[in-house]
Amino acid sequence: VWKHVTDPGFRWTEGVTPLANVGALAMIHVAYITMIIVGLLQPSLFGRFPARLVSKFHNLALSLASLAMVVGHLVGTYQDGGLSSLDAYLCHIPKPRSHLSELVFYAFYLSKLWELFDTFLLLCLQKTPIWLHLIHHSTTAGMCFFAYRGDASTSNLVLVTNCTVHTIMYFYYYYPITQIRRYITTLQMVQFVVVMVDLLYVTLTKVSPAFGPPCTGDAMTDYLGLFFYALFLTMFGNFFRQQYQGQAKGKRAELAKPSAPLIGSPDVVLTSLPVVMYW
Questions:
Q1: Taking 80 as the threshold, does the pLDDT of residue 7 lie above it?
Q2: What is the distance between the alpha carbons of residues 198 and 62, in angstroms, rounded to a whole number?
Q3: Which of 31, 197, 240, 274 ranks highest by number of CB atoms within 10 Å?
Q4: Distance between CA 64 and CA 186 in Å, rounded?
């Protein structure tokens, strides 16, 4: 990997760039699914790993890496001329990209593989990952891969919004502040809506000349992106409704009872998305 990324002419190339091929991606996900099955059937195998300590460093590192990718992306995109207009940033991305931009996009793809370690930590903590966590983590690396393969024009917006949210989210896992938990989930849903709007516009440019010249990228990649972002938005929205609105209703109901205590509240499991961490 180091040999490739230090090459001034580095470009993300399927089958050449390390881990940038369908075979490697499939093998990683087979290992990921196997790990989950083993962890659920034989939880004692994971119990001795110092997950609480390692998760601290893991979350802080992912937060800092996400911040570095936001900064690197903006600098690289400026060098490319991609910040000259909304069209250049969201639709017709200038080519070729600078070395820095290529590095950041590759780092973003690798970070989605790195995030699979979240699930390992949960299993080591003897916790069962929720379906939202499993679906989200098992699809994001593949989405990045096919977006780069299809030269998706939405890649810029996806990277900057996702890394911005993850900078905040993983730092929250490192240093939890319960009061902002629901706002992180809200921010994630805002991210999905913003990207979906861009995806919808990009798709419309490819089906009707009324929306202007077609944006760069393969149409099938855009359709898949719309499907998965709609799926994420639905699942995150459902979680938000159950986790936060349900809690609020429950607390109001408890307070309405004559025998309900006026101080204190039931313990709330520290749950955030897309990964569930317990401290």
A1: no
A2: 26
A3: 274
A4: 21
Contact in structure between 77 and 160 (CB atoms under 8 Å): no
Is pLDDT at 276 greater than 50 in this prediction?
Answer: no
Tokens for 40? Answer: 């659920």
Token pair recorded at residue 146? 């096919």
**pLDDT digit string, tens, across residues 57-96:** 999 999 999 999 999 999 999 999 999 999 999 998 888 8
Under a CB-based contact definition with an 8 Å cutoff, are residues 170 and 277 in contact?
Answer: no
179-185's contacts with Cβ under 8 Å and 24+ in sequence apart are: 181/270, 181/271, 181/272, 182/240, 182/243, 182/244, 184/272, 184/273, 185/236, 185/239, 185/240, 185/243, 185/244, 185/272, 185/273
Q: Provide the percentage of residues in the chain whose pLDDT is more than 70.
A: 86
What is the amino acid identity at position 85? S
CA triple 157-159-165, angle to 5 deg: 100
Q: Which two tokens stand for residue 268?
A: 């709330």
